[in-house]
Amino acid sequence: MTTRRTRPAPRPPEGTPPRAELARQARTVLADAVRIAHWAAGAPGPGTTAPLAAHALERAATALELSPAQVRAGWDRARLAGLIELHGDTARPGWRLRAWDRDDSAVLRGWVALFDAWSLVHAAPAGIEAGAVAEAVEAVPQVLSLLQLSAGPVTVPALLDLLGQRVAELHEERCEVPLGPGRPAPAATAAGATADRPDPAATTGGTDADLNALLLDWALEGLAAVGALTLGHGHATLTPLGNWAVWVKLEQICVAAQSPAGNIEQSAADMLLGCARLTPGPARDEYRAWLAARTVGSAVAELLAVARGQDALLRGLAFEALRVVGAPAEPEVRAVLAEPSLRPYALLWLAEYEGNDPDDAQDVLSREEATWLWVDTAAAVADHGETGLLVRHLDTAVQGTVPALLDEVRAVGHPRTVQVLVALAAAHPDPALAKAVRRAAFQVHTGGA
Predict the structure, then answer these.
(1) Which pLDDT value is given to residue 158?
(2) How far apart are alpha carbons 229 and 232 in whole angstroms?
(3) Between 280-292 and 296-307, two packed helices, what is the crossing angle to 10 degrees?
(4) What is the C-alpha to C-alpha distance for residues 264 and 359, in angstroms, rounded to an integer?
(5) Which of 140, 146, 175, 321 could disulfide-link 287, Cβ–Cβ 3.0 to 4.6 Å?
(6) How many CA within 13 A on the CB side of residue 266?
(7) What are the beta bridge partners of residue 400?
(8) How confident is the model at residue 187, as a pLDDT?
(9) Which segment of 37-46, 48-57, 210-219, 416-425 scores lowest on mean pLDDT?
(10) What is the pLDDT confidence band of residue 254, given thresholds at 50, 70 and 90?
(11) Closest CA to 37 of 68, 73, 3
(12) Largest interatomic CA distance in the chain
């Protein structure tokens, strides 16, 4: 139980347009991407070479009366916003494209996905080390926070000062000594400043300030390219879309910082175990708090590592936590579809992420995948639940009859099949059914038919 007070639903800052208007603006930003997505979805084999096969580029430019550069940009945006998905050499419409004209939430989620990928939309300056670019990307949220809190134009020098401070903090956290005027570069760095890996200090005139100014210009141009801000003479201003997106992210951080059960500093496995007996609402609060204390990439990797373990309960809870992560976890979740132990969970996660009703999400599973998931869930119940739950779990099987279930359970090859059947036989009150389940367990154990 918890005595934590319910937090009232936050309201956007005064002057924020209603969601319908924000969605209209997002549709405007992505108009070319939507046109190209519709074209690609109906075109035979548009190709997958980066960014688009040459012959397909020419066809699209002619059909849509756009320049090749506009087609390339629209193609990249359509992929980043989830409007199209590539399957081999075939482009298929993403769920957002199908919902584009009727679902404002789908539109806003698509635009936020593009907003999060701004550094991919606008190429980084040539000759800058990847580490410096990554630091700029990591510092941009502070720049956006200043723009959002200022509620109006902010001068470029003020943004540059904040970016420099944040980059310096990152250097300090990593125990790095920044280069500065008059400070020679370490011999290893100087020796490595070849044509393949230019020295950023040399590229920008030898000072961190020059490098930061170049990276700030790049970041502002990239954010402007996705419709998050507008650039004036010496200043930048968030658009209504950008202002709303930054506010949403700041609000999520504020909510996540409250951890009623105190699991923020725990490992993913310990955090999930700590949430196992919480009701869904408080558990999600814990997930958010734990996620807010980590970078998205490391948190998703740690959750998936736990999901690959032997504890089926933690596997299911890990994907519940990944539901809280949302869009940033999508690529990693798609990547585990090839792993049999994670595939059913990943398919359900993606189905719900793509807007399917949770009650209907099971329809995306094949009969074999549903059976595998039934065994995995039964293993979690056997390890952590009560015997009555294991008996009631029989009713959730898709087979409809116990003999059919046992036949398919034997064939599915789950590593916990024997243990699950033995536990079920011990728990079930019907002697005849328990005997049939024990016989199935014996057959699996001995490899018999």
Answers:
(1) 93
(2) 10
(3) 130
(4) 31
(5) 321
(6) 17
(7) none
(8) 33
(9) 48-57
(10) low
(11) 73
(12) 86
In sequence order, what are the beta bridge partners of 84?
93
Which CA distances in Å does 26 have to 64, 181, 391?
Answer: 20, 44, 50
Q: Is 173 exposed, middle or buried (0-12, 13-18, 19+ CB in 10 A)?
A: exposed
CB distance 427 to 386 below 8 Å: no
From CA 372, how far away is CA 320, in angstroms rounded?
18
| Residue 341: both structure tokens together | 């132990």
pTM of the model: 0.55
225-242 pLDDT, tens digit per residue, is 999 999 998 899 999 999
More confident: 180 or 99: 99
Residue 1 has pLDDT above 70, yes or no: no
Environment class of residue 51 by beta-carbon count within 10 Å: exposed (0-12), middle (13-18) or buried (19+)? middle
Q: Taking Cα atoms as reference points, which of 74, 70, 81 lies closest to residue 33?
A: 74
Q: 196, 117 in Cβ contact below 8 A?
A: no
> 346 with 333: CB under 8 angstroms?
yes
Token pair 């549903």: residue: 370
* Token pair 């008059």 in the structure block, residue: 182
Q: Which residue has the tokens 């910082």?
A: 257
Of 206, 141, 199, which Cα lies nearest the Cα of 169? 141
The C-alpha atoms of residue 241 and residue 152 are separated, in whole angstroms, by 14
Percentage, residues of the chain above pLDDT 90: 24
SS3 per-residue string spanning the chain: CCCCCCCCCCCCCCCCCCHHHHHHHHHHHCHHHHHHHHHHHHCCCCCCCCCCCHHHHHHHHHHHCCCHHHHHHHHHHHHHCCCEEEECCEEEECHHHHHCCCCHHHHHHHHHHHHHCHHHHCCCCCCCCHHHHHHHHHHHHHHHHHHHHHCCCEEHHHHHHHHHHHHHHHHHHCCCCCCCCCCCCCHHHHHHCCCCCCCHHHHCCCCHHHHHHHHHHHHHHHHHHCCCEEEECCEEEECHHHHHHHHHHHHHHHHHCCCCCCCCCCCHHHHHHHHCCCCHHHHHHHHHHHHHCCCHHHHHHHHHHHHCCCCHHHHHHHHHHHHHHCHHHHHHHHHHHHCCCCHHHHHHHHHHHCCCCCCCHHHHCCHHHHHHHHHHHHHHHHHHCCHHHHHHHHHHCCCCCHHHHHHHHHHHCCCCHHHHHHHHHHHCCCHHHHHHHHHHHHHHHHCCC
